Amino acid sequence: MVSHWSVNAVPYDMCMITPSEVALAVDDDSNTHEVQFITVTHNQLVSGRKFKLPHTCKSIAHHQGDLFITSGTALYKYTLSGKQICRLHEDLSGSFTV
Predict the structure, then answer these.
(1) How far apart are CA 4 and CA 17, in angstroms?
(2) Are 73 and 97 in contact (CB under 8 A)?
(3) pLDDT confidence of residue 43
(4) Which of 2, 20, 27, 75 would bridge with 89, disulfide CB 3.0–4.6 Å?
(5) Residue 86 forms beta bridges with which residues?
(6) What is the tens place of the pLDDT at every residue in 66-86?
(7) Helices (H) and strands (E) in the chain, counts
(8) CB-hemisphere CA count at 13 Å for 91?
């Protein structure tokens, strides 16, 4: 399969949600901080749901139905629908500590 999909900001990281769906950590360091989901349907990439974040979005991981997202200085736990569950850790001693 060869397919292409454009996003509206820098795709910093991605993780697999299911064998046919990935989540992208997308951020432009000013206005856009979001998670975008992309699925593979009939060998084509299809844009799925997305949700905005109140903080920057530098990396993302999926584990047991939850998303773990870093802002560069904090680690957050989110549901797949975009609800923030908690802030797990924060280190403000530098720009990219987490």
Answers:
(1) 19
(2) yes
(3) 86
(4) 75
(5) 77
(6) 999 999 999 999 999 999 999
(7) 0, 8
(8) 9
